[in-house]
Write a structure and sequence with these properties.
3 domains; 10 helices; 25 strands; 5-stranded antiparallel sheet; alpha+beta; Glutaredoxin
Length: 440
């Protein structure tokens, strides 16, 4: 009887293991770490509250009970940790209108995930103030304990940006000058306190404060240690994430190259399996991966070695249809640019030269213009004598959104089969690559 029970248990266990192995979704628990890990730090700008009467955010400002003493020209502001939660609770409380709430959803391309948002208010903001001391020196005070009382917080002189730029190890310097702040987040269906190093510095040339949160997350899977950062450290909502393998000592200060970073909805290869990065579930504090079971050549992405995303647009001048199918059989450079982007304009002479010396049967350039005005594109085509096809990315074709473009210029070089072979090439490097591929 006992042997039968053991056999039955073994059979049941093997069935569970087999069932789990067939699951496509993998959820990896995240552990928070202080610092920037393998990632290059970035900053978000910060300014004081605007007192304009028509400011739609005015009702969301923090009501600080006590202001710091001994500072003149005092100005107050707050630092946001999760704008989605802030907007959601501001709408529920009536601090922003329904019209404003819907307008933000549209402009951010955001559908509120009410399962992972709290209806009960969460302390997502951190108050700060700045002014000059009796010697005229700029000082900052941060509400580190989030009690809306700035008299129990120490003032400090923010680090100058050029001092940090000259530092050999930016990670350790930033942590040395960081303020450990408290706020709240919604995790595990509960509002929980969070403590994070907040690094603030001042840029004299820009005349503004810059800041980031010196925190990232780590997890392990199939023997690999994986790191995750949120919004280039400018926020902590883990919607816009970067993912990297941690294969160097975190204390070394070495950062992962841009080409070795992975984004949400991109693919990561682990032990010969390809997984889609579905994102971070902040409620569960997990990194979510989805097993594809497919080779790179059958997956659409913005990564080298994968198929480029499909799109359909209208050539700006001739109104003729442009799509990957119409470009099949030749190398194609997708050049994402904007009419106000100086580096984009500076690249135009190089593109014109490359276009003139290549065969249209072998190579084509397609400009995709985003975040610009129609009239400005017309002027730019005339002024710079652009002769290759241009597509204006709009709400109808949504090409820039499909490719996840966050900065200009961004380029993708695609082979005759529609596979991405290079990214972000410009100038001589682009010309050498194209000419070597097409044999000219």
């Amino acid at each position: 009887m006992k042997s039968k029970s053991v056999a039955l248990f073994a059979l049941l266990l093997s069935a569970i293991v087999f069932s789990c192995s067939q699951e496509k979704t993998v959820e990896l628990p995240l552990t928070m770490q202080n610092g920037y890990g393998p990632f290059r730090m970035a900053y978000g700008g910060e300014s004081a509250y605007s007192e304009a009467e028509n400011n739609p955010w005015k009702n969301t400002y923090l009501n600080v009970s006590k202001l710091p003493e001994g500072l003149t020209d005092l100005k107050l502001g707050d630092i946001e940790t999760n704008i989605y939660q802030t907007v959601y609770q501001a709408y529920l409380s009536g601090n922003i209108t329904r019209e404003r709430y819907e307008e933000l959803q549209k402009s951010w391309d955001w559908t509120p995930d009410t399962v992972n948002l709290s209806k009960t208010p969460v302390k997502t903001k951190i108050a700060f103030a700045y002014g000059k001391d009796p010697d005229g020196i700029l000082k900052v005070v941060v509400d580190a304990n989030n009690n809306l009382d700035l008299t129990d917080d120490k003032s400090f002189t923010p680090l100058e940006m050029n001092v940090l730029d000259a530092a050999a190890n930016k990670d350790s310097m930033a942590l040395e000058h960081a303020v450990n702040v408290s706020f709240e987040t919604f995790t595990g269906n509960e509002i929980v306190p969070v403590h994070v190093p907040l690094f603030i510095m001042y840029s004299e040339s820009f005349g503004m404060f810059l800041r980031n949160f010196a925190q990232y997350a780590t997890t392990r899977f199939e023997g690999e240690q994986i790191a995750v950062s949120s919004g280039h450290f400018t926020n902590l909502r883990y919607n816009d994430i970067s993912v990297a393998f941690m294969r160097n000592d975190p204390e070394s200060g070495e950062t992962v190259k841009e080409a070795d970073l992975y984004r949400k909805n991109e693919y990561i290869e682990i032990k010969r399996e390809i997984y889609r990065i579905a994102g971070v579930n902040t409620n569960k504090s997990t990194l979510v991966l989805e097993k594809t079971g497919l080779p790179k050549e059958q997956l659409f992405s913005t990564q080298i070695g994968y198929k480029s995303h499909l799109f359909r647009g209208e050539e700006f001048t001739t109104k003729s249809a442009v799509s990957p199918d119409s470009l099949r059989g030749k190398y194609v450079l997708l050049d994402f640019w904007a009419t106000w982007c100086s580096p984009c304009i500076q690249e135009m002479p190089h593109l014109k030269e490359l276009y003139a010396k290549t065969d249209r049967a072998k190579f084509e350039i397609v400009g995709i213009v985003g975040a610009s005005q129609l009239a400005a594109l017309t002027d730019a085509i005339d002024k710079h004598a652009i002769t290759w096809p241009q597509i204006f990315s709009d709400d109808a074709n949504r090409i820039t959104e499909t490719y996840g473009i966050s900065g200009y210029p961004t380029t993708f070089l695609i082979d005759p089969e529609g596979i991405i072979v290079a990214k972000d090439l410009t100038g001589n490097a682009l010309e050498e690559k194209v000419l070597s591929l097409i044999g000219e």
